[in-house]
């Protein structure tokens, strides 16, 4: 199989990724995040952040590659840039799995876009809707 270009084959948002004895398990697959919390009246608003695991499948040609990711807010500003890793696709293989543990800060509700770049080129993106609901305890 001759690979032309690089692309994001899959992006899975989840609570946990486990790999044991050559088998992988993805636990708590997420298609959206709805964080809810209660704080006492008069308390400052808590930081809107949460942990998440992102499992990426990157299709690429044989050789050495470097991957990065930009997380973009719903309003368009970049929240953060993450250096994912450098990896090698050996002869006969075409896909690389990357598991990313993130602590996401989401200052606004809406769709967060995760752009993946390989060797500086856009390989694809995934979107995660995020909402926070804070209630006050009297």
State the main characteristics.
138 residues, mainly beta, 5-stranded mixed sheet, 4-stranded antiparallel sheet, 9 strands, 0% helix, 72% strand
Task: Describe the protein.
The model has no long low-confidence stretch (mean pLDDT 89). With 138 residues, the protein is mainly beta. The protein is built from no helices and nine strands. Strand 5 and strand 6 form a beta hairpin.
The order of strands across the largest sheet is 3-9-8-5-6
Oligomer description: single chain
Series of H and E elements:
EEEEEEEEE
Which runs of at least 5 residues are low in confidence (pLDDT < 50)? none
Main beta-sheet annotation: 5 strands, mixed
Shape: elongated
Based on helices, strands and strand pairing, what is the structural class? mainly beta
Strand content: over 45%
Give the SSE map.
Blueprint: E1 7-20, E2 23-30, E3 33-40, E4 49-59, E5 63-72, E6 78-89, E7 95-105, E8 110-118, E9 121-137
Parallel strand pairs: 3-9
Antiparallel strand pairs: 1-2, 1-4, 4-7, 5-6, 5-8, 8-9
């Amino acid at each position: 199989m001759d690979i032309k270009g690089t692309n994001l084959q899959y992006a899975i948002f989840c609570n946990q990724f486990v790999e044991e004895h050559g088998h992988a398990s993805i636990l708590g697959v997420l298609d959206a995040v709805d964080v809810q919390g209660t704080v006492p009246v008069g308390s400052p608003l808590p930081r809107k952040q949460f942990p998440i695991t992102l499992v990426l499948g990157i299709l690429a040609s044989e050789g050495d590659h470097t991957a990065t990711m930009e997380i973009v807010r719903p309003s368009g500003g970049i929240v953060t840039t993450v250096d994912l890793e450098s990896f090698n696709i050996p002869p006969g293989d075409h896909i690389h799995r990357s598991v990313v543990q993130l602590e996401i800060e989401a200052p606004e509700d809406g769709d967060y876009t995760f752009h993946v770049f390989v060797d500086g080129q856009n390989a694809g993106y995934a979107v995660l809707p995020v909402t926070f609901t804070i209630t006050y305890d009297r």
